[in-house]
Design brief:
heterodimer; A: 294 residues; mainly alpha; ABC transporter involved in vitamin B12 uptake, BtuC; two-stranded antiparallel sheet; two-stranded antiparallel ribbon; 11 helices; B: alpha/beta; Rossmann fold; 2 domains; 7-stranded mixed beta sheet; 5-stranded parallel beta sheet
Chain lengths: 294, 406
């Protein structure tokens, strides 16, 4: 029973980490209509920015972390400026292709700039797990889970209750209409990419805490896609539920099903779920349902 | 006047011909090495390929020059991806026309397995061998047995050292991202099945090629009363398990191969002092700074452009290149400077033993046979650990056990 609880609790916390990465998809999508396939690469870049300030430059945490945050915001702005600025109002297909190009570019860029070495990642949260009555809880994931919940509700409030956030939401509806209403689509896109990059950096801090980083550590980006699709791309708080669901089932599968079948079914489970969602409920459980008037 | 011009022209032509003859005296053979500069082994590949280049530079400048043969070496990045390697191969074959290939790992072994006999190009690898290449009439030659053999070597060494009367209970970390990693699990399963008194495979932790946090998996594994966790994947896997063991406060030993071992973990963690209770076992020379292997490395380093550290990965590259140049020399002896072909080089490899001295102690005597792609008899290796931030060899000449094919 204690092992079951360990799997279930850490699975839920791992799921919240997926949700944090998935919120990155959502924020960029809601404000720029780009489904950013390269979100995992943004996470690696965010991780390297933290590594750069805290390990390479050996700055204290109170200086290094804010500087990483500033660099993440600047990176998001730069990515939007270089890759997506000219795509405002263009077809979705062009944005998807650019997102794929960004993924390929970022992998090469990080290999060239940061090299192929596996590097130590700083421990910002305490690495030692909490063990109570035989149940183990991973502390970085616990802190990450709390951070994710706060971010999700904060962003949900921003997008649904503030004038600036509602402006960004209008952009996600349609670029042309938003421009007709006097909303700056370009500015919305810039804010989205800066936010997306910051979220990616937080994701890196939680997932790599006290472990290691190298240019290939972007796999979590793909695991987060099913979470985003299950919740619905526009549903920020829905990501929490979807993340917990996928995380718990994945963890229990790894703990109980994989040893029985002698293979890694847990890793394909989220992708299997993604196929089912796309087949039966493409807008996810909490996503917007588009009504078209003819 | 005309006679003088004709005479001058004749002398000029004769001089030019002599010059051209001198240039032609050195016959070039192309050798291509599969590399992984942008995949899961990118962190160790510069050392690995540096070892190859150092040996080839040395050979070209010394023994190759004496016999009038030069090796033109080029590395091709296959990203440790069988599909990528398979797609690159036709271009490599037609453009580089390699006499032989230097392999890198399971991905090129899997991709090139059916292509080598078809295109009649031999390949020499020095990482652990694979069950799926354990077939007769090989074109792929691996200087080491499989990683499962090396895991068995650790188990037998530990059982003997501790005088255990119970098998070693182990958990293996693996990933389905590469055929070689699944093959290693199958090999260890086979060893445990056939040696129930020595090893019991308790569980397998399946993960990604770049795992970050494995605390939950390791916590569950440690709770099963295990004696070791074996990681034969890559550095990221070793580091994730080491961190997880530290996180849960466990003293269960971590066991790695040479390609993802102590020096690579120390570099990734950032401090050799933290690499405690970790063991590296492989059927190759230990990277210790004494003896003929280290002397050989120093020569390559000081005089022939080997600019990489004396690490296990560097030694893997040195090992395969040294074996190849020795076999090429033997092929030249048998067939003449211009008479070496990929096919007769393969025949040479199958019939000529490269001695431990010729290998500079990097490996023992290596005799390939047509029964399989790697030697399985009379092999030995080392087990070492890190103590107070320094490598410490615990045993050399540890016998590699025999395994039943899987």
């Amino acid at each position: 029973m204690t092992l079951f609880l360990t799997f279930a609790i850490n699975g839920a916390l791992q799921g919240l980490l997926y949700a944090l990465v998935a919120i990155g998809f959502s924020v960029i999508y809601r404000a720029s209509k780009v489904f950013n396939i390269a979100q995992g690469e943004l996470l690696v870049l965010g991780g390297f920015l933290v590594w750069l300030t805290l390990m390479e430059w050996a700055l204290p945490l109170y200086l290094g972390l804010p500087l990483s945050l500033a660099l993440a915001v600047a990176s998001g702005w730069l990515i939007e400026r270089i890759f997506f600025k000219r795509l405002v109002g263009e077809q979705i297909f062009a944005m998807v292709m650019m997102s794929i190009a960004l993924l390929i570019f970022m992998r090469g860029f990080m290999l060239v700039v940061f090299g192929p070495d596996v590097r130590a990642f700083p421990a910002i949260f305490p690495a030692k797990p909490i063990i109570f009555q035989g149940v183990m809880v991973i502390q970085p994931l616990l802190f990450g889970g709390i951070l994710t919940v706060l971010i999700a509700f904060g962003l949900s409030y921003f997008f649904n209750r503030t004038r600036a956030g509602l402006g960004l939401t209008a952009v996600a509806e349609d670029h042309r209409t938003a421009m007709d209403l006097g909303i700056s689509v370009r500015r919305a896109s810039q804010i989205a990419w800066m936010l997306g990059m910051v979220l990616a950096m937080f994701g890196a801090v939680v997932s790599m805490n006290g472990n290691s980083i190298n240019f290939l550590a972007s796999g979590i980006g793909f695991i987060a896609i099913p979470v985003a699709l299950l919740a619905g791309l526009e549903a920020i708080t829905g990501m929490l539920l979807a993340g917990v669901l996928i995380g718990v089932v994945e963890r229990l599968t790894a703990g109980y099903i994989d040893p029985l079948i002698g293979a890694n079914f847990a890793s394909i489970f989220p992708l299997l779920l993604m196929l089912l969602i796309l087949t039966f409920r493409p807008s996810g459980f909490f996503g917007w349902k588009t009504i078209e008037r003819i | 006047m005309n006679k003088r011009v004709v005479g001058f022209a004749a002398v000029l032509i004769a001089t030019l011909q002599a010059g051209a003859g001198a240039l032609q005296a050195e016959t070039s053979y192309s050798v291509v090495g599969w590399a992984d500069f942008s995949g899961p082994y990118a962190d160790v590949m510069p050392d690995w390929d540096g070892g190859r280049v150092g040996v080839i530079n040395w050979w070209n400048a010394t023994r190759g020059k004496e016999i009038g043969v030069r090796i033109e070496y080029s590395a091709v990045d296959g990203r440790y991806d069988p599909a990528q390697i398979a797609s690159l191969w036709p271009g490599v074959l037609s453009e580089k026309k390699p006499l032989a290939l230097l392999g890198m790992g399971g991905s090129d072994s899997a991709a090139m397995g059916p292509r080598l006999p078809q295109d009649k190009v031999p390949m020499v690898s020095a990482g652990g061998g694979y069950g799926f290449t354990w077939t007769p009439d090989p074109w792929l030659f691996n200087l080491r047995p499989t990683l499962a053999h090396e895991a068995g070597m650790y188990a037998e060494w530990r059982v003997a050292t501790e005088g255990r009367d119970k098998p070693l209970r182990v958990v293996v970390l693996a990933s389905e991202a590469a055929p070689a990693w699944v093959d290693t699990v199958n090999g260890i399963k086979s060893y445990a099945t056939h040696n129930p008194g020595k090893m019991e495979l308790v569980d397998i932790i399946w993960t990604t090629p770049q795992p970050t946090d494995l605390t939950t998996d390791v916590f569950a594994a440690v709770g099963k009363g295990i004696d070791a966790i074996i990681v034969m994947t890559n550095t990221a896997g070793s580091v994730a398990v080491k961190r997880a063991l530290d996180n849960v406060g466990s003293d269960v030993p971590l066991v790695t191969g040479a390609h993802n071992g102590l020096t690579a973990i120390a570099a990734a963690i950032g401090s050799a002092d933290q690499v405690t209770n970790t063991f590296e076992c492989a059927a190759v020379a230990a990277p210790v700074e004494e003896g003929p292997t280290y002397d050989y490395y120093r020569e390559l380093h000081d005089k022939h452009g080997l600019d990489r550290l004396f690490s296990s990965a560097t030694l893997i590259g040195v090992s395969q290149a040294t074996f190849l140049v020795n076999q090429l020399e033997e092929a030249v002896r048998r067939h003449g400077v211009d008479g070496v072909t990929s096919e007769n080089l393969r025949e040479t490899i199958l019939s000529h033993t490269v001695s431990k001295e010729e290998m500079h102690g990097v490996n023992g005597n290596i005799q390939m046979t047509s029964e399989g792609s790697f030697p399985v008899m009379g092999l030995s290796g080392y087990c070492m650990t890190m103590e107070d931030g320094k490598l410490k060899v615990l045993a050399t000449d540890v016998a590699v056990p025999s395994l039943v094919k899987w």
